[in-house]
Design goal:
The protein has 265 residues and is mainly beta. The chain is built from 1 helix and 16 strands.
């Protein structure tokens, strides 16, 4: 059993643990891309083949200040029944966050954050509850990873029902071509019936800060990388993203092409 305190990674899911450019096989991440750093206390440890972590954190963006006494709680239980198989389950609640004082959640979602849908005048608080399962099968030169999750969101808007049940997931495959060259592909999506401020590759001002609500987003990412060594990698990637808004209008032409050199020191 170990305990630590301070600004800590929010222990939800598996993707945040390999989010850095050396560990991430692609340049981009999944659409959900659940990760964040928040102030709090965390306990973690191992029992046999199982590993556990539990964190109690502030939940909102302002550092060293919590505008609502309701805390964020996140937990993950991981199990490695065999050397080639990894499984985990995660659960989290952001706690109630103040629409004005906190503004945004600390955890990242859909290239944005959790935020109230209703106006501040009628929505004083908002919150999200999350569940996710992850699994990965590994072999000598590659792996296949899968994640499926759900978000239950609501705010206190007195003028409308803004509750949302959103589902997300991704499927990722990496295969070594030579000892240093590899290829990678990842498909991810978010489905938000009723609509939610989902930025994706789109403009933050249009789809998040002054939201045109989005009901679904899909992203397909393909690329390759060349590892010169454990501390140096070169990557190229093309990602195609599409979706639909509550108006029925399609979201398109939000694609990405890029290259990256990552050095670890």
């Amino acid at each position: 059993l170990s305990i630590r305190a301070g600004r800590l990674n929010i222990p939800f899911g598996e993707e945040y643990q390999r989010r850095g450019p050396i560990a991430n096989p692609l340049i981009s991440h999944s659409l959900s891309d659940l990760w964040g750093v928040d102030e709090g206390v965390e306990v973690y440890g191992r029992i046999g083949a199982a590993r556990y972590v539990l964190a109690v954190q502030n939940g909102g963006v302002p550092r060293l200040r919590d505008s609502n006494s309701d805390k964020s709680v996140a937990a993950r239980l991981a199990w490695d029944p065999a050397s080639w198989l990894h499984l985990s389950g995660s659960a989290m609640r952001t706690g109630k966050l103040e629409t004005v004082a906190d503004n945004l959640s600390e955890i990242w979602y859909g290239n944005g954050f959790f935020r109230a849908i209703g106006p501040a005048a009628s929505s004083t608080t908002f919150q999200a509850d999350l569940l996710q399962i992850d699994g990965a099968v590994s072999w000598k030169k590659g792996h296949l990873g899968l994640a499926l999750g759900q978000v239950q969101f609501d705010d206190s808007d007195t003028s409308a029902d803004n509750s949302r049940r959103m589902r997300h997931g991704y499927l990722e495959m990496v295969q070594g071509i030579t000892d240093r060259l590899y290829g990678a592909v990842r498909y991810s999506e978010i489905r938000a019936p009723g609509g939610y401020p989902l930025a994706g590759w789109g403009q933050l001002g249009k789809f998040f800060f002054r939201p045109v609500l989005t009901t679904e987003l899909q992203r397909t990412s393909m690329g390759f990388g060349y590892r010169f060594g454990p501390s140096l990698v070169f990557k190229m990637e093309y990602s195609r993203e599409s979706g639909r808004m509550t108006t029925g209008v399609k979201r398109d032409h939000e694609n990405f092409f890029g290259s990256e050199i990552a050095i670890k020191f």
